[in-house]
Write a structure and sequence with these properties.
Pfam families: Amidase
Helix content: 25-40%
CATH topology of the largest domain: Amidase signature (AS) enzymes
Structural class: alpha/beta
Bound molecules: glutamine
Strand content: 5-15%
Subunit structure: Heterotrimer of A, B and C subunits.
Strand order of the largest sheet: 1-3-2-4-6-5-10-11-9-7-8
InterPro entries: Amidase, Amidase_CS, Amidase_dom, AS_sf, GatA
Order of helices and strands: HEHEHEHEHEEHHEHHEHHHHEHHEEH
Distance between the termini: 26 Å
Number of strands: 11
Enzyme class: ligase
Protein name: Glutamyl-tRNA(Gln) amidotransferase subunit A
Oligomer: single chain
């Protein structure tokens, strides 16, 4: 049924870069046999899933939305993909994304944009717009995304789906083509909070192949959802972050309809017994600047491996009879990388160059510590923090494409969590009055307290 649905709507939505109908049907048949024998491999055995094209899938193309990886077929599975296969989830295909996960609209994909199923003229968020749109358009019941600065939560918000960024280190990054190693996390994209919990429990937990993997198991998330689903939030202390859309006086650029839905969510929590306090995290206003030094620095280093020798594309330079390796590398990278990727390579290389390292990267690392301290102080007063996920609803395709700063501002509320490693969820919070488009509510919790975001998320659902 999902393959049929993809056939019907994906021409218009363009959530997928690659559909593996044959593979998915074979996996589904195996699952049918297991379940008929009363031996399902997991609670999600037989439930199909779409995978963001930044995760290595053995035998299936993996492009990261880039021309430079066109034609590359990984010889191995990412750990999370391996776990999906072992749990019996048929893999429907690979979803579209901003090139190397850089962007907030999926318009930076080298293979054309994904369209928001709510309004095809609008963006589905990014970088994981393909995964979110596939789930929102009923092309897949579940998807995997990755969140380095908001790429699961912001697409979730603008497509009316649920997106979770787990605690940094609690889900393996092995086989995830790194954007920024110290920020990246794999997580679920679903239509309900319970679905997200089931998927998260399946992909999470220690992996010896990832050196930053935490040696603790993930908390009981489905139980947290059960608790939250009663709606009762008695005794839960909820912190509204003043700097993240919590105070309309101080937060210019936040859409009225988004703030109205957010306020409604806060009121609902109070009505259900939560204690709401206002918290201030003054360093969060520097999060975007900090992120845009750390991320390009790490990304420029990661992308150096695309040297025209090891993976995918190789372009021979024109007019050079006997090109050197460097000539081939230059021609390949020139043709293979898009503008946003080149912009960040230049920024990152500059920030890391000798003489500037302390002034930029070193300074950004210090501010990063201050942001974590603001989180610590806020979590001393509140069990969870809450904000709108994104400042606006889905904007029009093309609207911010020529204005990188305007594009970056979409992640104002999601980036602090990546800088400090804490978990976060975005749950649908209703539709904005002025445009009838989905609004996302973000809930953040302390490191390894992912169960709290599920409990409160389920209560708001
Ligand atoms: N939009 C942010 C960026 O462009 C976040 C990306 C992400 O989370 N992968 O870097």
């Amino acid at each position: 049924a999902h393959l049929d649905r993809i056939g019907e709507v994906d021409g218009a939505v363009h959530a997928f870069l690659h559909v593996d109908a044959e593979g998915a049907l074979a996996q589904a048949a195996e699952s049918d046999a297991r379940r008929a024998a009363g031996k399902p491999a997991s609670a999600l055995d037989g439930v199909p899933i779409a995978v963001k094209d930044v995760l290595a899938t053995e035998g299936l193309p993996t492009t990261c939305g880039s021309k430079i990886l066109e034609g590359w077929v990984p010889p191995y599975d990412a750990t999370v993909v391996k776990r999906l296969r072992a749990a019996g989830l048929p893999i429907l295909g690979k979803t579209n994304m901003d090139e190397f996960a850089m962007g907030s609209s999926t318009e930076h994909s080298a293979y054309g944009p994904t369209h928001n199923p709510w309004d095809l003229d609008r963006i589905p968020g990014g970088s994981g717009g393909g995964s979110a749109a596939a789930v929102a358009a009923f092309e897949a019941p579940l998807a995997l995304g990755t969140d380095t600065g908001g790429s699961i939560r912001q697409p979730g918000a603008v497509t009316g789906t649920v997106g979770v960024k787990p605690t940094y280190g609690s889900v393996s990054r092995y086989g995830l083509v790194a954007l920024a190693n110290s920020l990246d996390q794999v997580g679920p994209v679903t239509r309900t909070v319970l679905d997200a919990a089931l998927l998260h429990e399946l992909i999470g937990g220690h992996d010896p192949l990832d050196s930053t993997s935490i040696r603790e198991s993930v908390p009981d998330l489905t139980d947290a959802v059960r608790m939250g689903a009663t709606g009762d939030l008695t005794g839960v202390r909820v912190g509204v972050v003043k700097e993240l859309g919590g105070d309309s006086q101080e937060n210019e650029g936040w859409q009225d309809g988004v703030q109205a839905r957010f306020q409604e969510a806060v009121d609902l929590m109070v009505a259900n017994g939560a204690e709401v306090v206002e918290v201030s995290c003054p360093t969060f206003v520097h999060a975007l600047a900090t992120y845009y030094l750390i991320l390009p620095a790490e990304a420029s280093s990661n992308l150096a491996k695309f040297d025209a020798m090891r993976y995918g594309l190789r372009v021979l330079p024109e007019g050079i009879i006997d090109p050197s390796a460097e000539d081939v590398m230059r021609a390949t990278r020139d043709a293979g990388f898009g503008d946003e990727v080149k912009r960040r390579i230049i920024l990152g290389t500059y920030a890391l160059s000798s003489g500037y390292y302390d002034a930029y990267y070193g300074q950004a690392q210090k501010v990063r510590t201050l942001i974590s301290r603001d989180f610590d102080a806020a979590f001393a007063k509140a069990d969870v923090l809450i904000s709108p996920t994104a400042p606006t609803t889905a904007f029009k395709l093309g609207e911010k494409l020529d204005d990188p700063i305007a594009m970056y501002l979409n992640d104002l509320a999601t980036i602090p969590a990546n800088l400090s490693g804490v978990p976060g969820i975005s749950v649908p919070g209703g539709l904005a009055e002025e445009d009838g488009l989905p609004v996302g509510i973000q809930i953040l919790a302390p490191t390894m307290a992912d169960d709290r975001v599920y409990r409160v998320g389920a209560a708001l659902e």
